[in-house]
Structure formats: structure tokens, C-alpha cells
Design brief:
Shape: globular
Helix content: 55-70%
Number of strands: 5
Number of helices: 15
CATH superfamily: Farnesyl Diphosphate Synthase
Radius of gyration: 21 Å
Strand order of the largest sheet: 1-2-3
Distance between the termini: 55 Å
CATH architecture: Orthogonal Bundle
CATH class: Mainly Alpha
Order of helices and strands: EEEHHHHHEEHHHHHHHHHH
Structural class: mainly alpha
Largest sheet: 3 strands, antiparallel
Amino acid sequence: MHRRLRVRPDRNSGAVQLGWTKVLPVDTIPAYSGASRGPAEIVRPPTTSILARLHGAADPVANLDGRCCGRGRGGPGLSLAEAVRATAADVDGALDALLPRPHGFHGRVQDAMRYAVQAGGKRLRPFLVLETAALFGVPRERAMRVACAIECLHTYSLVHDDLPAMDDDDLRRGRPTTHRQFDEATAILAGDALLTIAFEILADEATHPDGAVRAALVMDLARAGGHDGMIGGQMMDIEAPRHSFGAAEVIELQARKTGALFEFSCQAGARLAQAGPEDFANLQAYARDMGLAFQIADDLIDVTGTVEQAGKAVGKDQDAGKATLVSIYGVEGAKAECARLADSARRAVSGYGARAERLAGLPAYLLDRAS
């Protein structure tokens, strides 16, 4: 038996009822002015309903800065580095629009959510969503919502990773980690809220008009971020110092901890386009090689880079006795393996021609960053 979620506007308030859950009206969100440690300002609820937002220009992601489809500011003529930076700026704007403004007595957790997400970064996973969606001509506003969802889930994992019970880090992207800026309890709740809002974004009709596509995206992200994906990899990472991991175990760890979210990001464009099995297979192969190349590059920075380059403490894996492909292969061997993976990823998307030029060049770009 299949049940269909009802979307029904309230006759009096204009709010939308989803089954038994009443969703309050949402309007375009004003710009965020920065994280605050004090009590949050209570703001008056907006008046535009979600239903109006879904079908009109009030959608905070649609027509962002006048761009609704294609590649936005990351258009033709830009170098890969410029395209990554331009896309990151687009994603930052969309996240600012989608995340809640702090309000009410619970505003502190919303403040912490925004602080964590607005720490910056390359926005690599959103970049992959948007680039793979562009392969199939998916409207940019739909792809942007998925890009924001994966970034919210990714940021939740970083917030929890930084906690004293996990990696116990004080810096993230050059700023105090969320639990240092606020406190541990608030950071835990902010991470939880970022995880759940990722699925709220995907489940919204603005992400795709077909409920089956939205359900598939929710399922894909749940699997990528769950016990057999990212969480499973994090558990392996915690267990690693108590075992003698070889290359095969490290690759499995990274495929779960890092690679699973990359696979979701690369296949999301195909999901939005309702593409065929061959496209999913091509993008999965690309994601696996690109994801492992990314992790090796990150591990190289941890060994050879600086705090300024990494945006966080370096040398922690070696101090903790964790095996990495850098410690197993050596620096030069790891660079050679990263180059091999970059070439394999490039070949996986070669059939898409010029449309995949940026995807094809991305792994080598990541290796250059670590060199």
C-alpha cells in the first residue's frame, strides 16, 4: 500500500498542512548579520505562504540574483578555480535565503546553524550537484536546493566531528569551531537541526514537482549519510587506532566517510533529470575516483601543509596513530595514486564532452591544491 503526502493550504492563514504536520508560512529571509552570543531577537512571522513560494518568484532560491537556470555566475569563460569560487558565492547566497533567521527563545540554535554553515569553504559537494545537473539541463533553482541540502548535511557532520568526544578541534576553516563559539550542547543541537533541515529542503515541492523524485533524493541522502555510509566511515575512523589498517581498509573507510556524500552529490543531477542507468553508473565511477583523490589530497595537506592552508589543525592523524594512504604509500606514492585516480575520474565523464569539462578537471585541480 502506498500513501501520498497531502499538501493543503489552511483557508484562514494561508499556511500549508503536510499530513498531520502544519508548516508555518515562509517568506524571503533577510540577510544574516553574523553570529550572536546573546538572546535572539524575536521577529514577526512573515505572511507569504509556502504554497505561494512554491509556485511563484517568492521561492528564496528561484531567480537568485536573476539567475534561474544554467550555471549562474559559474558560466562559460571562467577558469575552474574561478568557477568553483563563483559557485561557492551562489551557494552561500542560497543558504542564507533558506536557513532560518534566529527568532524566539530557540533562536540560539538557529544562530549556531548559520554560524556553522557560513564558515565558508570550497562548497565542493554543491559544486558537484550543480555541475552534474547542468549535464542534463536541470533547472538551476532545483539543483541549487539539492546543493544546499547536501551542504547542510555535510556541515552537520563537521560540527559533530569537531566536538571533544570526536576529533576535539578548536578550528574549522580558520574560525573557532561551533562548540567553541557557542557551547557543546548548542553545537550538538545545531548539528541535529542542520541534518534534519537537509531532508526538509529535499522534501519540499520546490525541489522537484515529482514526489517520486523527491522521495528518491531523500532515500539517496539518507543512505549516503547513514550507518552504511558517512556514519559507518566515522565509526571506522574511531576504531582505526585500535587496528592495523592496510590500504584496503583505509580505502573502505574513506569510501564511506567521505566518498558516500560525493556519490550522492554526483548522482543528484541524474536523479533530478530522471536519467538512465548508464548515466548513474558513469557518475558513480567518477565520484568514487574523485572522492578518493580528494581524500588523499586532504591527507597530503595534513602531512605537508600548514594550519593556514588546511583551515584546521594539521598532523592529527599521525599523532593519533591513524593509517592513511599517505602513511601507507608515502608522500610521493600518494601523489602518484591521486594522479591515477584523477585520470580515471576524467575518463568516466569523457562521454559528456565539453559539458563535463569542469568535472573532468576537478580531481587534478584538487591535487594541485595539495602539491
